[in-house]
Design goal:
Elements lengths: L2 E4 L5 E5 L2 E5 L4 E3 L3 H10 L5 E4 L15 H39 L12 H15 L4 H19 L1
Antiparallel strand pairs: 1-4, 1-5, 2-3
């Protein structure tokens, strides 16, 4: 039976075929129908869901999830889920900051694109900032590190 984990630090709901699957923050749930589990793990991964390996279901080794290897695997999957979610949020922010600005310029509309920000785009910005503040956004950490190194290189010239 497939296991699905909500990688986010907040409750999350997936809707599949009219059925609602609500997860608490960080909750791991067995999904009895494999088709639904695949849809959640593949189509809803941008929302912070991942499928865990079968070893963690506890049928063969009941305490495997409590072992150091099991805990490391869960932590790795959580990082992957958060990274995928942050990448999706960055796409939403990019659309607001760059694509919408280009669309407005093509239409010769002289307005700040932020004026047109929807509630969803504002929520995406807030969530992305939250994960960056917690230093869980690995891409942002990489960008910050490169900027720091470039700054050091510039001061040596």
């Amino acid at each position: 039976m497939p296991l699905i984990m909500n990688c986010l630090d907040e409750p999350n709901t997936a809707v599949v075929g009219g059925n609602y699957f609500t997860f608490k923050a960080g909750q791991i749930k067995p999904i009895h129908q494999e088709g639904i589990a695949r849809i959640i793990s593949q189509n809803k991964r941008d929302d912070g869901f991942v499928e865990l390996p079968d070893e963690l279901d506890g049928t063969e080794y009941p305490d495997w999830a409590q072992t150091p290897e099991g805990k490391a695997l869960i932590a790795q999957k959580k990082r992957e889920g958060i990274e995928t979610h942050c990448a999706h949020l960055r796409q939403v922010v990019y659309n607001l900051q760059v694509s919408l600005k280009q669309d407005l310029e093509k239409q010769n509309i002289k307005a700040d694109p932020r004026v047109f920000a929807s509630k969803g785009e504002i929520a995406a910005l807030e969530k992305l900032v939250k994960y960056q503040d917690k230093e869980q956004d690995q891409d942002q950490l990489r960008i910050d590190r490169v900027k720091e190194l470039e700054k050091k290189m510039g001061s040596q010239k």
